[in-house]
């Protein structure tokens, strides 16, 4: 998931994705602990996606507007 794509999603949908990813993260960590996880990068990618969603939610909370045409990005 790209942060730019996440910024186009509503807050409710982001919160739903966040809860789904948190549940998936729990399951992946459990699989890793019992040795059944085949792709260890799934845990890494999942954590990154959770962080991206939390970042977008926080940006909205404090009123940061991100765009491609901001000052310094010409």
Could you give a short description of this structure?
The chain has 74 residues and is mostly helical. The chain has helices spanning 3-6, 11-34, 41-62. Helix 2 (11-34) runs antiparallel to helix 3 (41-62).
List the helices and strands and how they pair.
Blueprint: H1 3-6, H2 11-34, H3 41-62
Please, could you describe this protein's structure?
With 74 residues, the protein is mainly α. It has a single domain (3-62), classed as Helix Hairpins. It has three helices and no strands. It has helices at 3-6, 11-34, 41-62. Helix 2 (11-34) packs antiparallel against helix 3. The protein is elongated and about 45 Å long. The mean pLDDT is 88.
Given this structure, which CATH class is correct? Answer: Mainly Alpha
Global mean pLDDT: 88
Number of helices in the DSSP assignment: 3
CATH arch. level architecture: Orthogonal Bundle
Measured distance between first and last alpha carbons: 25 Å
Q: What keyword list fits this structure?
A:
74 residues
């Amino acid at each position: 998931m790209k942060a730019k794509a996440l910024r186009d999603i509503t807050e409710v949908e982001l919160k739903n994705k966040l809860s789904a990813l948190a549940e998936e993260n729990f399951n992946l960590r459990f699989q890793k602990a019992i040795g059944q996880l085949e792709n260890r990068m799934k845990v890494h990618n999942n954590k990154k996606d959770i962080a991206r969603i939390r970042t977008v939610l926080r940006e909205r909370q404090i009123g940061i507007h991100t765009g491609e045409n901001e000052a310094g990005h010409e």
